Amino acid sequence: MTYGKRLMLLMGIDTLIVMIAVFIGGYLIYNTEYIDSPIIIASSLSLVVFHHFFAYQFKLYKRVWQYASINELKEIFKAVTLSIIATVIMQQLFFDIIHKRTLVITWMLHILLIGGSRFAWRMYRDTFLKSHKNKKRTLIVGSGNAGTMVARQMMQGGESELTPVAFVDDDMTKKKLEIMGVPVEGPVHNIENIANELDIEHIVIAIPSLTRQELQRIYDECQKTNIRTQILPMIEDLLSGKVSVNEFRDVEVEDLLGRDPVELDIEGISESITNKTILITGAAGSIGSEICRQISGFQPQKMILLDHYENGVYDVEMELQQKELYSELITEVSDIKDKEKMDTIFESYRPDVVFHAAAHKHVPLMEKNPEEAVKNNVMGTKNVAEAANEYGSETFVMISTDKAVNPTSVMGATKRIAEMVVQHMDTTSETKFVSVRFGNVLGSRGSVIPLFKKQIQNGGPVTVTHPDMVRYFMTISEASRLVIQAGALAKGGEVFVLDMGEPVKIVDLAKNLIKLSGYNIEDIGIEYSGMRPGEKMYEELLKDDEVYPEQIYPKIYIGQTYNINLFFNTVINGLSGLSKEELKVNLIEIANRQEQKVSQM
């Protein structure tokens, strides 16, 4: 029905309702005496005109009444009340009399009939048109604002495959009460029993503000039912309008890390990036590509994407070009081990800020190929850092790892030596050189998650090195934000570290991933393969004597560093010509060497 036809229909219904209300009100008070009087005709016409006027003012003719709620009822009350008041004034002015009792009854009938006519369609739709057949019986965890919205969306959305059967909430004051006809059955720890009693087929966790620990507790209870469990989108996505409240998603392993994600003030770094030339090495990697995505939002003048993996660089370039960019995108397929090419690139573009993400990161592979770890992680970093110094970059940010602390592996040792190179460069250069350390990154190519997923898909078992092995974890977006934030906080020579909360047992991560994939741990199985060469039982983010007790930024620490004046001509050159075993020993010895401590605060 067109808007014009709909408007005429509603105005016709309202006119009939107003006339009925006036005549019934007069008849109840005065019987037939009032019906023939001039005042009833004038009052009827007056009320019709005033009703249409105020109905238009309060947009009663523009509302979609199949979704009518308490807000629409409020607007009806306002329009009807003002119409009656205006009619009272008319009676006083033209007839010098006010039929109070008649108008009170008319007012009540007016609201009842107008409201009834508007809500009738919703009642009819909800009662007769909405079919619950073939819809999954759904248990909603959380009966607050979000849970109520979820239930309303399910009940109103004819296309929804879910229908709400009950709420679960730890607020015992709500137990046995009903919300929109849906009962609140009990606390979270009783989910399994409730699900069995009510034949639940689907569970939705509708508490966007949950902490990681609370979500883990609730999810563990849901998993006892073996019923598919979904969760609302992140609260910031709901508030920003990116997604709606009925766009549920599966629980991801990132949701169960046991800590809340760190939100950094990215807006505060725009001054260091906007209208600048930014170079990202390792731009095709997990961290490098995410840095590219986040930096693109700050409108740098140029973004130089450098990586030796041509297909990866191409993919990132194509992805960024789909966005509304205000930056010139430049791709360079090159290896950081090629010093001459690094000099050429820096001379051509003279980047203001360098984010150095290129590195070999695979621990067991680097144990077998220590010379390649030295070439890439040490010499490659040296090449890029020297080029940044020579061609006047403002800031150089190197991405390091928790494995660089008290390293026992070739990868960790070469990353620690790379940190030393960066610290040494800071003492001799106008460029601000800093490093950023963080733990394992979920979703990166070196993460255990892809391996676990593949093992689960193949029917198991999932292989874990040791039942007591723990690691720090963070998401790719968190890691990238820390790197970008470090560039803005840099004074020179610092090692920035994210407060990553409590470490997570690898075996617990494996168990969660198995359950999230819809399997039982017993069916897939977990086997312990033993620690590999170079691995540690646990990782550290700072040595005990490196830590400053206070955060320099919310959830960011800065490490105390050392004077490094031994590398460029002696130690690094001394690494050539050694056997693999000699190289391993020398690398770890050098990486654990300390000199005079200097304060960076």
Automatic annotation (TrEMBL):
<feature type="transmembrane region" description="Helical">
    <location>
        <begin position="76"/>
        <end position="95"/>
    </location>
</feature>
<dbReference type="Pfam" id="PF13727">
    <property type="entry name" value="CoA_binding_3"/>
</dbReference>
<dbReference type="InterPro" id="IPR036291">
    <property type="entry name" value="NAD(P)-bd_dom_sf"/>
</dbReference>
<feature type="transmembrane region" description="Helical">
    <location>
        <begin position="35"/>
        <end position="55"/>
    </location>
</feature>
<keyword id="KW-0472">Membrane</keyword>
<feature type="transmembrane region" description="Helical">
    <location>
        <begin position="7"/>
        <end position="29"/>
    </location>
</feature>
<feature type="domain" description="Polysaccharide biosynthesis protein CapD-like">
    <location>
        <begin position="278"/>
        <end position="559"/>
    </location>
</feature>
<dbReference type="InterPro" id="IPR029063">
    <property type="entry name" value="SAM-dependent_MTases_sf"/>
</dbReference>
<protein>
    <submittedName>
        <fullName>Polysaccharide biosynthesis protein</fullName>
    </submittedName>
</protein>
<keyword id="KW-0812">Transmembrane</keyword>
<dbReference type="Pfam" id="PF02719">
    <property type="entry name" value="Polysacc_synt_2"/>
</dbReference>
<dbReference type="InterPro" id="IPR051203">
    <property type="entry name" value="Polysaccharide_Synthase-Rel"/>
</dbReference>
<dbReference type="InterPro" id="IPR003869">
    <property type="entry name" value="Polysac_CapD-like"/>
</dbReference>
<comment type="similarity">
    <text>Belongs to the polysaccharide synthase family.</text>
</comment>
<keyword id="KW-1133">Transmembrane helix</keyword>
